[in-house]
Design a protein that fits this description.
single chain, alpha/beta, Rossmann fold, six-stranded parallel sheet, 48% helix, 14% strand
Length: 193
C-alpha cells in the first residue's frame, strides 16, 4: 500500500506480549472485549492508538478495572503509530455486531495486513470473511468474547502461526489497492449497462 512507501519498518522487531488496535474509538468498538483481554493477559500490553467519542468511556473502564496494561496513546503521527503497530505481535479488531460492521470496509485490517501483522478480528464484514478464508486472520463471532481472547492468546504463544497469518495477510492485501478496487468498481458499473 502506498501509504507506507515513505516509512521503513524493516528494522522494527516485535515486542513480546504487545497487542495493538489502531483507529477511531467509535461506539461500535467492543470496549469490554479490550478490557477483558487485558484482564486475561496481564503480562501483555495493549496499545490503543487513536481517539474518538468512546475514549473517555474506555478510560473509565480501565480505571474501574485497575488495569495498567492498556495504554491509550491518543492520535499519533502516522509513522509513529505504524511503528508501534509494527512492534506488536498481534493486532486486534474487536467490534460489536452491527449493520455498520456488515457494510463497512475496515481500513485498519488493510493497515495491519500491509505491515505484515497477525490479526484477530470479529466476523461480520466481507473483508474479515475473506481474510479468514485465506488464512490471513483468526476470526471469531462478535458475541464470543472467550474465543476472541483465546485467538489472541494462541497467536501470542505460536510464532509459526503468527508468521503464517502475517505472510498470508501481506500477500492478500496486495489485491486491495485503491487502483484495483477502483477498476473492479468501473467493471461492475460497465456490466450494468
Amino acid at each position: 500500500m502506498n501509504r507506507y512507501k515513505n516509512f521503513n519498518f524493516e528494522d522494527v522487531k516485535e515486542d513480546e506480549g504487545v497487542i495493538s488496535f489502531i483507529g477511531t474509538l467509535l461506539p461500535y468498538l467492543d470496549l469490554d472485549k479490550i478490557i477483558n483481554l487485558a484482564k486475561s493477559l496481564k503480562n501483555s500490553t495493549i496499545y490503543v492508538i487513536g481517539d474518538g467519542p468512546m475514549r473517555d468511556e474506555l478510560k473509565r473502564k480501565i480505571k474501574k478495572s485497575k488495569l495498567s496494561n492498556i495504554i491509550l496513546t491518543g492520535r499519533l503521527p502516522d509513522e509513529e503509530a505504524f511503528r508501534l503497530v509494527a512492534k506488536s505481535q498481534v493486532t486486534i479488531y474487536p467490534q460489536i455486531s452491527s449493520f455498520h460492521k456488515e457494510v463497512s470496509c475496515p481500513v485498519k485490517i488493510f493497515d495491519y495486513a500491509a505491515l505484515g501483522k497477525a490479526i484477530v478480528a470479529n466476523s461480520g464484514s466481507e473483508i474479515c470473511r475473506i481474510f479468514k478464508e485465506h488464512d490471513a486472520a483468526l476470526v471469531s463471532d462478535p458475541l464470543d468474547q472467550e474465543k476472541f481472547i483465546e485467538n489472541v492468546r494462541t497467536l501470542l504463544d505460536d510464532e509459526n502461526l503468527r508468521k503464517k497469518l502475517s505472510d498470508n495477510a501481506k500477500r492478500l492485501v496486495k489485491d486491495f489497492t485503491w487502483e484495483k478496487q477502483g477498476n473492479k468498481l468501473v467493471k461492475m458499473y460497465s456490466q450494468l449497462k
